[in-house]
Amino acid sequence: FFGHALHNKNLWHLNRYSVSWAVSVGLFIAYVPVPFQMLLAASAAIAIGCNLPISVALVWTSNPLTMPPMFYAAYLLGAWVMGLRAKNPAVELSWDWLITHWASIWQPLLLGCFIFGLSLAILGHIAVRLMWRIQVGKAWQRRKLKRKRKQQATARSRNQNESGDSAP
């Protein structure tokens, strides 16, 4: 289905671009209240050209244990943003309950999911970029210190050789 797009090296490599966008994709899709989120994350990762395994793995932040509080919080946020009074119905995991209550909850739920998903995607993207930059800075500092120590050791060795050669 994706053909040549699967050969994009960013789908499989770890670099600042592919990881930061993969975090964004995974966290955003985790808040999409549909089944088969992993397929959505994989499709988005391929389309964007970001790390595929990270995108798919982060979707699992919404799992059967975390979905109820995540989506309830999203519903409450959406209702608050829309100026609606949030309903607190007794939730049943059945098609009958979903069909009966869907009309009254779908708008605030989807709005809250969009807000949470977009916010986490942006925050995750920024956090990865920032952490990556900090790590690269630390690596540069380590290399610089290592070079300096090597130069000092070379200079000391040279000084010892010169002082040893000039002795009578």
Task: Give structural notes.
This protein is mainly alpha-helical. It has five helices and no strands. Helix 2 (37-48) runs antiparallel to helix 3. The longest helix has 71 residues, at 95-165. The N and C termini lie far apart (82 Å). The model has no long low-confidence stretch (mean pLDDT 87).
Average pLDDT across residues?
87
Which structural class should the secondary elements be placed in? Answer: mainly alpha
Enumerate how many helices there are, as a single number: 5
Distance between the termini: 82 Å
Per DSSP, what share of the residues sits in E-state strands of 2 or more residues?
under 5%
| Biggest β-sheet strands, sense, barrel | none
Strands, count: 0
Overall geometry: elongated
Helix content: over 70%
Helix-strand pattern: HHHHH
What is the alpha-carbon Rg in Å? 26 Å
Low-confidence stretches: none
Structure in a nutshell:
The protein has 168 residues and is mainly α. The protein has helices spanning 16-30, 37-48, 52-58, 67-82, 95-165.
Which features does this protein show?
168 residues, mainly alpha, 5 helices
